[in-house]
Amino acid sequence: MSWGTELWDQFDNLEKHTQWGIDFVEKYTKFVKERSEIELNYARQIRNLSKKYQPKKKEEDDNKYTWCRAFHSTLNELNDYAGQHELIAENMTSQIIAELTRYAQEIKTERKAHFHDGRKAQQQVEASWKQLESCKRKFERDCKEADRAQQYFEKLDADINVTKADVEKARQQAQMRHQMASDSKNEYSSCLQKFNQEQNEHYYTIIPNIFQKIQAMEEKRIERMGESLKTFAEVDRQILPIIGKCLDGITQVAESIEPKNDSSQVIESYKSGFEPPGDVEFEDYGQAMKRTVSETSLTNSRSDSKADRSSKGKSKTLWPFIKKNKLMSLLTSPIPRQPPPDPPSPSAVTPDPCPTPQTPKQSKEPLSHRFNDLMTSKPKMHCLRSLRRGVSIRGSNPEDFSHLPPEQRRKKLQAKIDDINKDIQKEMDQRDALTKMKEVYVKNPQMGDPNSVDPRLAEIAHNIEKLQAEAQKFEGWLAEVEGRMPVKSDPPKRTSVLYETQNSTPPTNNNCAQDRESPDGSYTEEPSSEVQSKVQPETAESGDEFDDADEEMLPTIGTCKALYQFEGANEGTISVVEGELLYVIEEDKGDGWTRIRRNEEEEGYVPTSYVEVFLDSNAKGAITYI
């Protein structure tokens, strides 16, 4: 059925209907746009959720458990899942929203042109009708004038009193009016014929053609709406296989969880390598001998403090299962320190920018006083440097992983050695590639200057030498750990520390790692150092000499830049020049002083406010002091 034949008189209604159709296209476009925004927001929220629960750097060790890896794989699959919803939004924007927006503009232009032609045709018909009406009124008026002129002539012709001239004049006037009426009749007939022809053409040719075009436009709009609805469904259907793969991946990783393997991994993670403590020997107090204590217990009692123990009415023996004993609380309790000096203003000129600082020797005295409170004579302390480092560096771990049990320390050292070997291999590969490039430059000088490669080769050689030295250092620690790993044998028996002291020669080497093990698996530097201090008493002077002469050089933990000049006139300090770059070997412990090193022979303390410190990334809790 055609709109041109059936709706020839519904021009205004068709105009309203087509406008409503265009409005519906725009309404549907807005709907798809809002759906696309919903998909984008959903994908963004899914990505944020996955990012929020991604493992942090400190949680990377959790990947050794299958259930942790399954969860991390689920988060990755969820990222892919979010990406598919972003793809939905992208396809809807490009395939539906953009196309419908462009088509809506086209259909608006086409509709405007069609209805403009229809209005123009209507105006032509109306103009023709007005012309016909004008001709008709003129013909009617002329006919009436001709009848009046004829009646006036007949009246004068019948009157005998009227002259012949008047009668003749009336007759000529009547003839003229009849002629005008005849001309108006012909003109009216012509206009009528023309109007009928134009009207017939308007309602049977022009309007049907225009309405037919409008009908085709409307049908095309409806067809395009159907295609858009189909695309709307296809965009969702296209991602279903990939979403199914994401869900299948989550199912597979869930099925890959191995409880037995995870429970075995706990053993690998926390196995200390220590042997369980042996039986405690019977101590016969009836014999005339010194009271003995277990060699694996931690105590702060002295051999001559029997009267003090009886007066207090309780034992001072603290077993290793106690998390914090009195000795450690004394060692780790905060020590009153001198506040750091105020840094001078760069613009201000002061003769002495640094007040009299507290020297490192003065900072050692409270620690020795605490030992004097616990012991009759000041002991010789093995590895006092690492003891002080373990107590004062807040939250940092030793480079040799000596804070870990032997088994865990061995694994950490082995992993560190493997990483260093990988870095060495990378540097060697770069060196080989640059060497080949240099050979090519030597054979073909036009390709490049061979000497331009030498600085990079020298840098790589220095890096390799540095990495090999570091690897050798860690291999030495690993050999030390493997040499002290306990072998499965008969359970050891606990013996008296004082008994061994009386019947054996105290060790002379400064091996602090051997004094860190405890039977219950606790592995700290401080208690073991205290036990050694009880076993090997010595004067305060000899202990300080041992510490200063035999301790190993501290490794650098970062670099620093001097902000101001410091004279370093006091003992234990070092002078620096503004802008000088130095190495940091011990960070500020809260007393306002930082220990730095210029070279192997020059090191000392400077006020923390005088330098800008850059700690290495492997130093835990690294911060910058300004």
Per CATH, the architecture of the domain at 3-262 is Up-down Bundle
Mean pLDDT: 74
The count of DSSP E runs of length 2 or more, i.e. the number of strands, is 7
Major β-sheet strand ordering: 6-5-4-3-7
Q: Please give the share of residues in helix.
A: 55-70%
Biased composition (Polar residues): 498-513, 525-536
Biased composition (Pro residues): 336-358
Main location: membrane
Domain REM-1: 403-480
Summarize this structure briefly.
Helix content is 61%, strand content 5%. It is mainly alpha-helical and 626 residues long.
Molecular structure report:
Residues 555-616 form the SH3 domain. It comes from Sinocyclocheilus grahami. Residues 403-480 form the REM-1 domain. This is Formin binding protein 1. InterPro entries: AH/BAR_dom_sf (IPR027267), F_BAR_dom (IPR031160), FCH_dom (IPR001060), HR1_rho-bd (IPR011072), HR1_TOCA (IPR057870), SH3-like_dom_sf (IPR036028), SH3_domain (IPR001452). The protein has helices at 3-6, 11-52, 66-158, 164-255, 259-270, 306-312, 326-332, 360-374, 384-392, 406-443, 454-484, 497-503, 525-535, 540-550; strands at residues 298-299, 317-318, 558-562, 581-586, 593-597, 603-607, 611-615. It is mainly alpha-helical. Among the domains are: 3-262, Substrate Binding Domain Of Dnak, Chain:A, Domain 2, CATH 1.20.1270; 401-483, Helix Hairpins (Orthogonal Bundle); 558-615, SH3 type barrels (Roll), CATH 2.30.30.40. The strands form two sheets. A five-stranded antiparallel sheet has the order 6-5-4-3-7, with no helix packed on it. The chain has a two-stranded antiparallel sheet with strand order 1-2. Helix 2 runs parallel beside helix 4 (164-255).
